[in-house]
Design goal:
The protein has 308 residues and is of the alpha/beta class. It has 2 domains: 5-217, Rossmann fold; 228-289, Alpha-Beta Plaits. It contains 11 helices and 14 strands. Helix 4 packs across helix 5 (138-150). The two termini are 42 Å apart. The mean pLDDT is 89.
């Protein structure tokens, strides 16, 4: 594996009973990269992340993580990984400081009290260091969980939907810290459903039905999707909702969405949509740049073979 690659995997697969969670997945992740996994619930994101870091043994395929074989050297990988699961997993009847000191001892970190104090300062937790974890809001629990992840100075962070249920301000502060860690050389794998978070990743991958359908930088993914989008603003929500019902039946319109008093449509045949809109009386649509959300909805519809 190249010294610049934190992860190199080919043909990974994992089955649970009759369910094929991941199929023939190959991926490369550079050191210091924030790599975002997106996809519907149950698409295989968490299973993929766990295989890549040695937490779960694949049924097929090979790979290396941080220079170690994901099958034979999983114990070495785990010592260099910080894992933040979807649900808060620390002790709610202990304070922030007590939790972090305990976790530091579990990792065998020298001077655990000092390590906990450094993590508390790094994540802005000093004013709440003696507060019981169970009394913290979602945003503060998130900060504390991230502090627990970085106590042992891991080379790789695994974040499984870390900001679900967290307010926008806390999410932004969380991502500022993730970018600071990545700039210092930490590689980050993160699963998310938020498009604004995906756009803050260096690379993204869209997983559906266990397959990696899209991979690359955000601008590359949007460009290679080759879809076109239009948007119009109505005078009120009722007008836009009524128009949306008509527009969905137009040739070429593969997806449509109402956002308050705005209607957005997209599809892969720009010329056909242009002709359809030209025949729509009173049309006020304007061509706009497609977004990452447009691309993912298009990909999902195509993969499922459903009509929008």
């Amino acid at each position: 594996m190249s010294a610049e690659l934190a992860i190199h995997a080919r043909g990974l697969a994992k089955t649970f009973g009759a369910v094929s969670a991941v199929q023939d997945l190959s991926i490369d992740v550079l050191v210091g990269t924030i790599y975002g996994f997106l996809g519907p619930n149950g698409s295989g994101k968490t299973t993929t992340i766990r295989m890549l870091c040695g937490l779960l043994t694949p049924d097929a395929g090979e790979g290396q993580c941080l220079g170690y074989d994901i099958r034979r050297e999983s114990a070495r990988i785990k010592r260099n990984v910080g894992y933040m699961p979807q649900r808060f997993g620390l002790y709610e009847d202990l304070s922030i400081a007590e939790n972090l000191e305990f976790i530091a001892r579990l990792y065998g970190v020298p001077r655990p009290r000092r390590a906990a104090a450094e993590a508390i300062a790094q994540l802005g937790l000093a004013a709440r260091r003696r507060q019981l974890a169970g009394t913290l809001s979602g945003g503060w629990k998130q900060r504390m969980a991230l502090a627990a992840c970085v106590l042992h100075r891991p080379r790789l962070l695994l974040l499984d939907e870390p900001t679900a249920g967290v307010d926008p301000k806390a999410r932004r502060e969380f991502w500022d810290e993730i970018h600071r860690l990545a700039a210092a050389g930490t590689t980050v794998l993160v699963s998310t459903h938020y498009m604004d978070e995906a756009e803050r990743c260096h690379q993204i991958g869209y997983i559906m039905q266990g397959r990696l359908l899209i991979h690359g930088a955000v601008d590359q993914v949007i460009r290679e999707a080759e879809i076109a989008a239009w948007q119009m603003r109505g005078s009120n929500v009722d007008e836009v909702t009524a128009l949306a019902a008509r527009v969905r039946t137009l040739p070429g319109v593969e997806m449509s969405a109402v956002f308050g008093a705005e209607l957005r449509i997209a599809g892969s045949d720009a010329a056909l949509i242009e002709r359809s809109l030209a025949g729509l009386a009173g049309s006020r649509f304007q061509r706009v740049d497609p977004t990452l959300e447009d691309v993912f909805i298009h990909t999902m519809n195509t993969a499922e073979g459903v009509e929008p």
